[in-house]
Each structure stands twice: as C-alpha cells, then as structure tokens.
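Student: Send me a single protein entry containing the residue sequence and its fold in token form, directly below this note:

Tutor:
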Amino acid sequence: MSSPPSQDPVIRVTAMPADANAYGDIFGGWLMSLMDMGAGLIAARHSRGRAVTVAMDGMQFLLPVKVGDEVSVYGSLGRVGRSSMVIAIEAWRRNRHQDVAHKVTEATFTFVAVDEDGRPRPVGQE
C-alpha cells in the first residue's frame, strides 16, 4: 500500500449524504468535481489568472468513498506550454476514525489560461 503525497492537499472535505447514492457510496461525478476544482486552483495560481478545463484523461475508481470519509485531493503541476498546463491529481479517502488513507482515483487535467474574453493567453500573463 502506498501513502498520500507528502505535500498539503489542495482540497480536503468530508463526504456528506447529499454527495451519495442510496447505498451511501459517493457519486463519481462529485469526486471528479473536487478533482477538477483542485486542479483549477493550481492552474489559476500558476497562470496568475483565469484558467479553464479543456481535457481530463480517463480515470478508474479503485475504492469506494463512503459518507463520512475525509477526502483529500492532491495535485502537482506537470507540463506547461504557452497557454496550457497539465496537472496530475490524486484523490485519497480516510475513514474519519482511522489514520490510514487509501488512494481512490487519479487523473490528469489539462487547463488553458484565458483572458477576460475567454481567449487563450500566455501562462503567467493576466
């Protein structure tokens, strides 16, 4: 078993009943949304402005997330182009009464820095 990345998570939340199906399993779309938000925070910080999601690679759910689990999203900036950024994201869950965390999924998100009119702009220019 591996352990979560050593850096602080970009997002940490508790999974709530509104985020789950009738069996108490968290919706995959809710988890993907958290991951997209985490990647967006990294993209906005690096590009110093607005950045939008343009792609996400396929992801597999390795383990379920249950209501009450703590969900932590970790991310790191990978390749940076003229206006694009590739960000690796991992999601981990921890039962609120235990110390051990488990990776539940990972994905790579591609963002593009955009100007006020939504047109691509160079990364780092507002």
